[in-house]
């Protein structure tokens, strides 16, 4: 059963955003460029991932959520680049859960979000492999800036925080309805009640 968002204003905000409030094009483009830089940074640490993407060079994947979308093309170097707006996607991945609260809860529980996939089967298999196997080693990146010991301490603290958030997300399910008293007839007189709280 779905848990209702404790922050309904977030759902309302995204609904309104989808119905007319659009971020300016320059902001969307800047966000997409930063996303590509981050993805490529992670891919460059995984030679197998680059080799798999290089085999799909020129293919375009489109990721969608609500009214937001980004089109990414695989390059011959096994990295990603923004595809032209006119490019026809070979693969479309649509996030079907519209509630940001539900998505955040699923992520904290370690669940995969519901995704509708359409397009090239082989390209979908390669993207699926990337999602399953490529991870960003944040500690490694931090250690280059602040040293090994502080990076490990921060990583450890982050893991404990994520575990606590996952436990919280797992307990933030709706409570089952309380037991109700049900009248039951007896042989010796009027109906009595049984259920929780009865002696």
Shape: globular
Q: What proportion strand?
A: 15-25%
Radius of gyration: 24 Å
Write down the overall mean pLDDT: 74
Biggest sheet statistics? 5 strands, mixed
Biggest sheet strand order reads 3-2-1-4-5
Number of strands: 7
**Order of SSEs:** HHHEEEEHEHHHEE
Uncertain stretches: 173-199
Please identify the oligomeric state: single chain
Structure in words:
With 199 residues, the chain is an alpha+beta fold. Helices cover 48% and strands 19% of the residues. It has 7 helices and 7 strands, in the order αααββββαβαααββ. It has helices spanning 8-19, 25-43, 47-55, 100-109, 121-133, 138-146, 148-171; strands at residues 60-65, 68-74, 80-82, 91-95, 115-119, 182-186, 189-194. The strands form 2 sheets. A 5-stranded mixed β-sheet has the order 3-2-1-4-5, covered by helices on one side. A two-stranded antiparallel sheet has the order 6-7. A hairpin with a 5-residue loop joins β2 (68-74) and β3. α4 (100-109) packs across α7 and α6 packs antiparallel against α7. It starts with 7 loop residues before the first helix and ends in a 5-residue tail after the last strand. Mean pLDDT is 74; it is low at 173-199.
Question: Which secondary structure elements does this structure contain, and how are they paired or packed?
Answer:
Blueprint lengths: L7 H12 L5 H19 L3 H9 L4 E6 L2 E7 L5 E3 L8 E5 L4 H10 L5 E5 L1 H13 L4 H9 L1 H24 L10 E5 L2 E6 L5
Parallel strand pairs: 1-4
Antiparallel strand pairs: 1-2, 2-3, 4-5, 6-7
Helix pairs in contact: 4-7, 6-7
Notable traits:
single chain; 199 residues; alpha+beta; five-stranded mixed β-sheet; two-stranded antiparallel ribbon; 7 helices; globular; disordered C terminus
């Amino acid at each position: 059963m779905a848990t209702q968002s404790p922050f309904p204003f977030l759902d309302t905000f995204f609904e309104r955003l989808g119905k007319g409030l659009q971020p300016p094009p320059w902001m969307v483009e800047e966000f997409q460029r930063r996303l590509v830089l981050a993805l490529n940074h992670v891919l460059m640490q995984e030679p197998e991932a680059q080799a798999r993407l290089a085999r799909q060079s020129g293919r375009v994947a489109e990721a969608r959520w609500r009214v937001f979308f980004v089109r990414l093309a695989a390059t011959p170097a096994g990295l990603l680049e923004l595809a032209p707006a006119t490019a026809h996607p070979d693969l479309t991945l649509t996030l079907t859960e519209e509630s940001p609260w539900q998505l955040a809860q699923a992520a904290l529980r370690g669940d995969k979000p519901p995704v509708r996939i359409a397009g090239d089967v082989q390209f979908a298999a390669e993207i699926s492999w990337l999602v399953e196997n490529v991870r960003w080693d944040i500690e490694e990146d931090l250690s280059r800036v602040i040293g090994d010991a502080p990076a490990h301490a921060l990583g450890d603290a982050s893991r404990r925080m994520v575990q606590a958030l996952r436990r919280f997300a797992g307990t933030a399910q709706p409570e089952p309805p309380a037991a109700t008293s049900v009248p039951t007839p007896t042989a010796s007189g009027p109906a009595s009640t049984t259920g929780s709280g009865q002696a």
